[in-house]
Specification:
It is found in: Cell membrane. It contains 17 helices and no strands. By secondary structure, it is mainly α. It has a single domain, classed as Up-down Bundle (Growth Hormone, Chain: A), CATH 1.20.1250.
Amino acid sequence: MSMEPAPPSVAPSPAAAPGPRLGLRANWRQFSLLVVVNGFVGAMVGMERSILPAIAEHEFELVAHTAILAFIVVFGLAKAVTNYFAGRFADDYGRKVVLVVGWLIATPVPFMLMWAPSWNWILLANVFLGVSQGLTWSTTVIMKIDLAGPKNRGTAMGINEFAGYFAVGAAALATGAIAANYGLRPQPFYLGVAFALAGLLLSVLVVRETRGHAHLEAALAPARGAPVVPSQGAIFWHTSVRDPNLSSISQAGLVNNLNDGMAWGLFPFVFAGAGMTLAQIGTLAAIYPAVWGVCQLATGALSDRIGRKGLIVAGMWVQAAGIAIIAFRSSFAWYAAGAVLLGIGTAMVYPTLLAAIGDVVNPLWRASTVGVYRFWRDLGYAIGALLAGVVADLYGVVSAVWLVAAITFLSGVIVAFRMREPGLP
């Protein structure tokens, strides 16, 4: 009988272990989970959308539109700056940790809004909200781009933005209804506590890291840029100014959120001035983001088939038409029609801009580029609210709305003349 020891059992080769795969079908579980998470991200913003201007007027007795819209200015600035760093942090430290930190920062927001003793507390709550949104929304965008791979980027962004902005509209409708029945505070913000808790628990317990998917895509497409990651300054300059596609995308994103900041801050005053009730204002505030959210399910996928540029140009012009209708007419039906057009136009633009970035940027520094784009895009909130507030105080609310409609139309003209159609995979 041989006394030689039995050969050791062979452990599975690391190469045989399942690694990341690209595509919506291969990653549908994690992708679907991130859709739900982004719904809670959007709902955190939506809970403010229909009632915060009313709180400013009725509880804190603010009169100047510039002062009232300051909450959007601080939100936009905080979110824009955080977006800038969120992309780089996601590249350097991973996506999941940035997502979880964003939810931790969101947790005090509903409590601050409920019990704020002064308007300064509302402003501080919106700083927290802006930082949180910059971290959480940026990360869910980046993670979905990672999972989808190059073939279905527009579809992925359409689904992502649908989840976020449909939730914005649903939360605005819900908080408007609660405020009409129970008062402006604290009851409407109970929803925010549930949103923050659900988003945090899902992100900590179930969401998985996706940075490996970006590395896989970069390895499969080595011709899309040198392997050396550029400096953050180089990425910022390239995205903001030098590259005609990326800079056109960045200015369109800025103007898109400029008009959204105006809509968020001034439309409730336009509607109230026309005799709309608080419940009607809540409904109108919900129509625009709800239409925006639902239509992105179609427009994101459509951009994968017909290209990006045409949808962006047409979308900016449709937005301008919707804003002009709201400025020109003064009935619930016309306001609803304008909100629908604004939602459709925004849906044509929003996922398409993000998909277009993925078309032209190396996956290894894609998150950083998305961060720069989202810096400019969400800076539009601050610029739009500040511009709208100043013009409204000087020349009236309707004049401010007309000005934003004109700026939105001009942005589409810039894209039409400067942007080239990115190559589709």
